[in-house]
Design brief:
- The complex is a heterodimer of chains A (152) and B (616).
- By secondary structure, chain A is α/β, with parallel strands linked by helices.
- Helices cover 39% and strands 14% of the residues of chain A.
- Chain B has 616 residues and is of the alpha+beta class.
- Chain B has helices spanning 9-64, 68-76, 147-199, 213-248, 269-273, 284-290, 293-309, 354-423, 430-461, 471-481, 483-486, 505-522, 580-590, and strands at residues 84-91, 96-100, 117-121, 124-133, 135-145, 251-257, 263-265, 313-320, 326-337, 343-352, 466-470, 491-495, 500-504, 529-538, 541-548, 595-599, 605-609, 614-615.
- In chain B, the strands form four sheets. Chain B has a five-stranded antiparallel beta sheet.
- The two termini of chain B are 117 Å apart.
- At the A-B interface, helix 1 and helix 5 of A face helix 8 and helix 9 of B.
Chain lengths: 152, 616
């Protein structure tokens, strides 16, 4: 998918969660342009166009990022910090979607500038509903940042 | 010679009175005698004068006629007058003419008559009386002895002496009685004083006679005695107290004569130093021998230095008593010097301070022990704190991990079970569907349990933010939150006139959510549910309560109500995790309030709680 335009960056270490999220997206026809990063390092490589993603461009960022917090190598909040600390990535909407609703994670997330914070519901039906709504909201309803937002 | 001062006052008084009255009497007698003498002489003079005039008148004829016989006759009439010693008539020429007594020799008469008048010549009174009838005829010479005068004077003198003697006797009698009155109080006083001084009995008192000087003296004397008596008592009391103090302080007094070298101890020092009184040599060297060998040299030096530098001596030294035990003695002393600055005496006290030394030692040891213990304790506390911090960190990591990692598998179980169900939906049997539902519900319940437990843990760690909260709106808000569970139920909410409380809003809301949802839950079987939220006063404290008409519980299990995972009902009867009331109790506890419940099986339950800053 490297040369295609990525719409969703899914940062998720759990294979099951990747599958379940993908299932939820597919059910709503939203899974066409999803890139999966399995840890924080992969996510940052992708976003900052480095490593195996040097051919990517900052001006073509994903429409939004679904970010888990507990991640190997670099954890979710660090990834968020890196994104929001860099003007080239800052405009990209980041949705934290995690198992917990730990107070300190929420506080830290919002302080770093997260655009949305969602606790994954235990009930699969509800989970699917949440994913569906997220996809619609960020891909259809929400106006993405204009291209010049990313021009240095 | 007896000095006047040594004569008893009784006799002194008598003597004074007798002397004074004697002098007065003697003077009075002398004056009286002199007066009598003078008066009688005048009498005699007048009598003799009259006689002379009579004789002279009678002799005029004889003289005028120069008749010697007549003249002699006239003169011899004088015989009747015993005191007339001699008489003579002289003619106008002064020649002896007739004489009386006739036998008297002419040389007994003066040759010529003296001048007219009278004169006292020795023991005689001599008159020269002119004899005249118109003209001078001659002179009468009349000589009277003064025997009568002297007799009389002697008589008077005798009477006076008798009177004097009588007066003395009377005066003596009076003075004896008088001096008795004056001297008696003095003598009594003297006797009292003697008794006081001999018997040292200050309790006796002198008799007070009147208000005169003696009375005053006696009174003053008595006052003095009282004062002395009081002082004596106070002094002996003080002495006794000092003795007791010295005794109880295990203190003795010593007195060191620096000239003779004699050291005197009081009774307390012998037992203190463990020396029998008879065996004490009374020298400073002996004391030094009693001292611990290590203390001897510096003790001697300290004494010498104190005397030389005129500073107070103070030393704490050890002695070794007869039975070989060491005792600690504290000595304090001061040297006294004569006018030349030579040290003459040193007085001081010594006390047995063994107990104190032992106590000090024990105190030092216990202090050391305490220091060691407290250091140990501190170390332990530090270690524990560190352990606790580590544990806390671990716990935090644990809860963090629980909240993240434990929920994930549950979600997966739930999701895949649902996916299976969807996959086989067309030919699913009711049994399989039931099994899958169990899986799905179990996962959901466990998720709920994890959420509740995490919340309980969070409540424990949370810092309270107190604010003023209106209770009614909060309760109404909670009721509306419970809507999913109250739909299709007939519930009568009775909300009392609750006003406001000062507490943590989020936590108090959790309390109401738990209590009200419980009330809703356990009244599920009632056709008509009544839930009352109100306030009351119990034991003078405002209390909020939540009452329902649900299934209630057996009060025997009331103590289990607020424990974590404690449930009084089966989960299939009434769902729940057993964490809710534990969380409520934790929240109330954090607010320093109290929570308790009253219930009866099948008759509903009432949950009461107090919360500080509650205003109803």
């Amino acid at each position: 998918m490297p040369h295609e335009e990525v719409e969703i960056l899914l940062v998720e270490d759990s294979a099951e969660d990747v599958e379940l999220t993908m299932l939820a997206l597919q059910k709503n026809n939203l899974a066409n342009k999803v890139h999966v990063a399995r840890d924080g390092a992969q996510a940052l490589d992708f976003l900052f166009c480095r490593g195996s993603h040097t051919e990517r461009s900052f001006v073509k960022p994903p429409r939004f990022i679904l970010l888990d917090l507990k991640l190997p190598k670099i954890d979710g909040l660090e990834v968020l910090r890196a994104i929001k600390n860099d003007p080239r990535t800052r405009p990209v909407p980041v949705v934290v979607m995690t198992s917990s609703k730990e107070q300190r994670d929420m506080v830290e997330g919002y302080k770093l500038g997260v655009n949305s914070y969602i606790q994954k519901p235990i009930d699969f039906g509800q989970f699917r509903e949440v994913v569906k709504q997220l996809g619609y909201y960020w891909l259809v309803i929400n106006q993405p940042p204009p291209a010049e937002t990313f021009n240095p | 010679m007896i000095s006047l001062e040594n004569i008893p006052i009784r006799r002194k008084l008598t003597a004074a009175i007798m002397f004074t009255s004697g002098i007065v009497l003697v003077l009075a007698c002398i004056a009286f005698t002199i007066y009598e003498f003078v008066a009688f002489r005048k009498d005699i003079t007048r009598n003799v004068g009259t006689l002379a005039k009579v004789i002279a008148a009678n002799s005029t004829g004889a003289l005028a006629f120069q008749n010697e016989k007549d003249a002699t006759e006239v003169l011899s009439a004088l015989k009747a007058e015993r005191h007339i010693a001699a008489a003579a008539l002289y003619d106008k020429d002064g020649v002896l003419f007739a004489r009386y007594p006739t036998n008297a020799l002419p040389r007994f008469f003066p040759v010529t008559p003296g001048p007219d008048g009278h004169l006292f010549d020795g023991d005689n009174l001599i008159f020269s009386e002119p004899v005249a009838a118109e003209k001078r005829l001659g002179t009468l010479y009349l000589k009277s002895d003064l025997e009568a005068l002297y007799d009389r004077t002697l008589l008077y003198a005798g009477i006076t002496v008798l009177f004097l003697a009588g007066s003395f006797v009377v005066a003596f009698a009076i003075s004896t009685s008088l001096q008795g009155r004056i001297a008696k109080p003095i003598l009594e006083l003297a006797e009292t004083a003697q008794r006081v001084s001999h018997e040292k009995d200050y309790s006796v008192r002198a008799r007070i006679g009147g208000k005169d000087e003696l009375g005053q003296l006696a009174r003053s004397f008595n006052d003095m005695l009282t004062q002395i008596h009081e002082r004596d008592l106070a002094l002996s009391e003080k002495e006794e107290r000092l003795r007791l103090a010295l005794q109880s302080a295990r203190t003795g007094v010593w007195d060191w004569n620096l000239i003779t070298g004699k050291l005197t101890w009081d009774e307390f020092l012998y037992p203190m130093f463990g020396v029998e009184k008879e065996k004490f040599r009374g020298t400073i060297e002996h004391v030094n021998e009693l001292a611990h060998p290590e203390d001897r040299a510096w003790l001697t030096e300290a004494l010498a230095r104190s005397i030389a530098e005129k500073t107070d001596f103070f030393a704490e030294f050890r002695i070794v008593t007869g039975n070989g035990t060491a005792r600690y003695i504290a000595s304090r002393g001061r040297a006294f010097y004569d006018s030349n600055g030579k040290p003459v005496r040193m007085i001081g006290v010594s006390a047995d301070i063994t107990e104190r030394k032992r106590t000090e030692q024990a105190l030092r040891e216990s202090e050391e022990k305490y220091r060691r213990l407290s250091a140990e304790l501190e170390e332990r506390v530090e270690k524990r704190t560190l352990e606790l911090a580590t544990l806390n960190q671990e716990l935090e990591a644990f809860t963090y991990s629980v909240s993240h990692d434990l929920r994930a598998p549950l979600r997966h179980i739930n999701a895949y079970a649902q996916l299976i169900q969807e996959e086989i939906a067309p030919n699913i049997t009711p049994t399989v569907k039931g099994h899958i539902k169990r899986i799905v519900d179990g996962a959901k319940n466990m998720g709920q349990l994890i959420d509740d437990l995490l919340n309980l843990a969070r409540v424990g760690k949370l810092e309270l933010t107190r604010e003023k909260i209106l209770l009614r709106p909060m309760i109404e808000d909670v009721i509306s939150l419970l809507k999913p569970d109250t739909e299709n139920r007939q519930i009568e909410w009775q909300i009392g006139n609750l006003r406001w409380a000062e507490c943590d809003s989020g936590l108090l809301k959790q309390v109401f959510v738990n209590l009200l949802s419980n009330a809703v839950k356990y009244t599920r079987l009632r056709e008509k549910t009544v839930i009352k939220v109100d306030h009351t006063v119990i034991n003078g404290e405002p209390v909020i309560f939540v009452r329902d008409n649900g299934v209630g519980f057996d009060m025997r299990y009331a103590s289990k109500l607020f424990g974590v995972f404690q449930r009084l009902h089966l989960a299939e009867q009434f769902e729940g995790t057993g964490v809710g009331l534990a969380t409520v109790a934790r929240i109330i506890q954090k607010h320093h309030g109290k929570i308790w419940a009253e219930a009866e099986l099948d008759k509903g339950a009432t949950f009461y709680f107090t919360i500080p800053g509650l205003h109803s």
